[in-house]
Prior knowledge:
The chain is mainly α. It has a single domain (2-299), classed as Na+/H+ antiporter like fold. It is built from twelve helices and no strands. It has helices at 2-23, 31-53, 61-87, 91-102, 106-145, 152-160, 163-177, 185-206, 217-241, 246-256, 264-270, 275-299. The longest helix has 40 residues, at 106-145. The radius of gyration is 18 Å and the shape is globular.
Amino acid sequence: MSTLLQALWPLFALIIGGYLLRRRDFPSAEFWPGAERINYFLLFPALLFNSLATAPLDNPALPRLAGAVLLALGLAWVGLLLFKRLRGWPAARFGAITQGLLRFNTYLGLAAVGTLMGPDGLAMAALMLALMVPTVNVMSVWALTAERGVSLRGLLLPIVKNPLILACVAGVLYNLAGFGLPGGSDRLLGLLAAASLPLGLLCVGAALKPQELGGEVPALAWNSGLRLLAMPLLAWTVAWALHLPVQESQLLILFFALPTAPTAYVLTRQLGGDGHLMAGIITLQTLLAAASLPLIMTAL
């Protein structure tokens, strides 16, 4: 437990630091949206591309992990659809609840994997993202637009334009081409990647909205409980049923134990979802994950 805490507390310290800096308007209120954009469109894609361009794509663990990810997400999706029918949730509310359960904080996830599992785990996690990010985005867009309908173009456009997905695809294709990273380009990508995770965690903290925690306490509580406890239990069950090796099981469970993604708020607002509920879910899950994530990883 102490080893895990030593590995994870600096990550949450950066999140808290981002929140405190934003509250004091340092360096300025305009800084944080720009920081989020440069990280989302440049630094984080560089990290994903760098990890995938040199990853061993013939790793026998990849098909097993892909199957486990799709099975776990599929089971969670079926459960959500059943509850939507039973509770009669409108799309605005269902979209926020869906993202609270299915989306995950990629900055925190890759930072934790890099700390706990090293470069090999990071490369495998990047390959997981290449599958999970588009799948979860399609589910999220559909959940937010189910009532008014959405065209195939409207469903796929946010996926095709997503810089994280584009970086994953480019990294895999570059790897398969066998060019390598010559002439110091690996160093350049490494520098960009090194800046991504600390800045990303600061931006996660800056995006927290404690004022949005009121008024939806029951929904926030059960949604956070399902995401931070039930989803990793589901991942453990899938890993056990598929007989995944230890490291692959840990990687799968870790990603299903992460709090939801801060970018879920942007998508919710763009597609007419319940922004108040979504902001509260993001804030509460991120705060609770400081306690739940070390406990889940210790239980492994």
